[in-house]
Amino acid sequence: QDASGQGKPLLALSPAHRRYMCSLSFFHYSEYLVTAINNPRSLSLDSFLLNHSFEYNLAAFSSWVEFTLEKFACPEMKQITWLSTVGLLMVVFGECLRKAAMLTAGSNFNHIVQNEKSDTHTLVTSGVYGWFRHPSYVGWFYWSIGTQVLLCNPICVVGYTLASWRFFRERIEEEEITLIHFFGEEYLEYKRKVPSGLPFISGVKVEL
């Protein structure tokens, strides 16, 4: 009990949980905000990415269930401060990298892979795109895993890593087929010089 004689609620938010909720809220709000700045013509409620996919919502729900169960069964697991701090740093890194990629790409960035090249569509290779071919995906990859490290969710750390890696491998291959169609040799040369940024993902294979 506290000084007032009232017991603390069993589900009182821990510092890690508060940071997670702030990170999650900021991620989705900033997706909408940056889209509004970069590409207002494509702006809609979907720009929040709250309805990204059934799998995304299931992953979020799973992380909440794991956190709650482990908080009851093994509360000391949720008090590993250094591990939670590592997770927070991953979240901040991933968030900053993704938003830097979106701002650098400008109107070229879209949440949906484009199948037709517009008149204003250009190949962006400067800024963070000089580090990685797909910096927005790299940022999202480490942000998503970081949220689970922040929560000290060992099961979801593994699950998020595998699921995110598989999703981005398929997404990158799909996107690079389109980019090769749009930019031809210009993109192939860029692809040869700059890594994808994600571990063990080289992108679509091209016969030389």
UniProtKB/TrEMBL annotation:
<protein>
    <recommendedName>
        <fullName>Protein-S-isoprenylcysteine O-methyltransferase</fullName>
        <ecNumber>2.1.1.100</ecNumber>
    </recommendedName>
</protein>
<dbReference type="InterPro" id="IPR007269">
    <property type="entry name" value="ICMT_MeTrfase"/>
</dbReference>
<keyword id="KW-0808">Transferase</keyword>
<feature type="transmembrane region" description="Helical">
    <location>
        <begin position="140"/>
        <end position="163"/>
    </location>
</feature>
<keyword id="KW-1133">Transmembrane helix</keyword>
<comment type="function">
    <text>Catalyzes the post-translational methylation of isoprenylated C-terminal cysteine residues.</text>
</comment>
<dbReference type="InterPro" id="IPR025770">
    <property type="entry name" value="PPMT_MeTrfase"/>
</dbReference>
<dbReference type="GO" id="GO:0005789">
    <property type="term" value="C:endoplasmic reticulum membrane"/>
</dbReference>
<keyword id="KW-0812">Transmembrane</keyword>
<comment type="similarity">
    <text>Belongs to the class VI-like SAM-binding methyltransferase superfamily. Isoprenylcysteine carboxyl methyltransferase family.</text>
</comment>
<keyword id="KW-0949">S-adenosyl-L-methionine</keyword>
<keyword id="KW-0472">Membrane</keyword>
<dbReference type="GO" id="GO:0032259">
    <property type="term" value="P:methylation"/>
</dbReference>
<dbReference type="GO" id="GO:0004671">
    <property type="term" value="F:protein C-terminal S-isoprenylcysteine carboxyl O-methyltransferase activity"/>
</dbReference>
<dbReference type="Pfam" id="PF04140">
    <property type="entry name" value="ICMT"/>
</dbReference>
<keyword id="KW-0489">Methyltransferase</keyword>
<keyword id="KW-0256">Endoplasmic reticulum</keyword>
